[in-house]
Specification:
By secondary structure, the chain is an alpha/beta fold. The protein is 39% helix and 9% strand.
Amino acid sequence: MAAAWFTRSRNIADHLKRNMGIFFRPCPTSTVSGYFSRSRNSPSQLSSWRFESTVAQTLLDSDSDYDYSRLQNDDHQGLDFPGGRVMFTSEMQFIPGCPPQRVPCYHVLNNNGQPNMITSFEQVSKEIGVKMYSEMVTLQIMDTIFYEAQRQGRISFYLTSAGEEAIAIASAAAVSPHDIVMPQYREPGVLLWRGFTLQEFANQCFGNKADYGKGRQMPIHYGSNKLNYFTVSSPIATQLPQAVGAAYSLKMDNKDACVVVYIGDGATSEGDFHASLNFAAVMEAPVVFLCRNNGWAISTPVSQQFRSDGIVVKGPAYGIQSIRVDGNDALAVYNAVHAARQMAVLEQRPVLVEALTYRVGHHSTSDDSTKYRPVDEMKKWEMGQNPVNRFRKWVERIGWWNEEDESQLRSSVRKQLLQAIQVAEKMEKPPLADMFTDVYDVPPSILVEQEQQLRETIKRHPRDYPSDVPL
C-alpha cells in the first residue's frame, strides 16, 4: 500500500503528487513526534499532547532557495505569534479570492476505461475489482426497482444514486470495515459493500417489523450497528459534528480506525460544515470528510452556493489536507480515499476529499429536476460520464468480465430484489407501542398520555387506522 509506507502527511502528499498524480492541498504541518509512544489513557496527558501538537512547527518551505534563518532573530522582520512566526512584508498584497487556475482533479480512467498513461495508481485485485463492479450494477438495479415501486404507491419515498455509484462503492472498498461511517442519504452503496442484504434494504423501505428502525424512519434512512453504519438523518449536515466527536473518541481509545463522513455540496452551506472542519483540525481527529459535489443541492446549483473553487479549497483554510478527485472514476476514488484513510489513521488528523460528479436522477421522488435544469445536460452526463459504464470497460479490458457475466449478474440481482420486495411487503408492520419506546428507560408521563390518547382515537375512528399495523 503506497500510502502506508509513510507516517507523515507531507511525505505521503509528496509521494502521491510525484508518483500517483494525486494533488493534496497542503497546509502547515503539526508535529506528531512522540505521539505513538505516549499514553493516551490519561486525560491530562491527552490534553497536554493535543495542545502541543496543534502548535505549528514551521511555515517555511524547506525547498526554498531563500535563507530565512537570518531573519529569525530580527524583530523588525517578523512577529512571533501563536501558531508560528509570521514574516513582515513591505508590500501590501491581498490574497486573491479566486486563484487564476482551478485545483486539478485526480483522475485514473478515461471514459473508455483506459488508465491515464502518466498516472501511477494502486492496482486493485481481481476479487476487489469484480466486486466493485458487481456492487455498482446491483446498486443501479436496486435504485431502478425501488424507484418504480414508489411510483406504484408501494413505498412512500425514494431517492437514487444514479450517476454517483462509483463514489459510495469505491470509497467503501478503500476503507476498513472497522471504520465508522456517517452517511448523508446517497450512500446505500457503502452498506451494500459491507454486506447489507437486499432483503434488509427492502425491509427498511417498507417499514416492516424486520426493519431495524421499527418503521419510524422514511424509506432509504438505513442504519446498521453491525456494519458500523450510523442511521441516516434527514436534516442536512447534522452528522458532521457527530463524526468529529466520534473520531476523537477513537483517538482517545487508541483505535486503529477512523470515521468516514459523507455529505453533498449543499451541506457545505451549513454552519455545521465549517464548525466541524475547524473542530476536527484543532482536535486532530481521524476523520475523512467525503463531499459528493454533484453540482446541485436539490434545485440550487453550486454557482449560487459559493464563489470559491468548489469544496476542496475550504480544507486548507482550516488547516486540513485536501484533495479533489474524479467521482465518476472508481479507481481514482479508491486510490484517493485509501490514501486519505491512511493519513487519518496513521497521523491522527482529518482529511477532506471532494469528489466531482453529477446527480443524473431527480433529487428524490418528490422532485422534478427538469423544472430547473436542461434535460440535455442530464443526458450528456448520463451517457458521457457514466461511472458504471466506465468501470465496466476497464474490467472487461483486463479480462475480468464479459457479456455472459453481465447477463447473469443483472438477471440474478433483479430476481433477488423482486423476491425481497414481495417478502417485505407481506411482512407484518411493527406494533403501535414501538412508536413510544427506545428513547427513555422509563417513559415520561407525557408519552404515556400520548399513547393513551392515540389508542382512544383509534377506537373512535377504527376505519381511519391502517389495518396492517398491530395494536
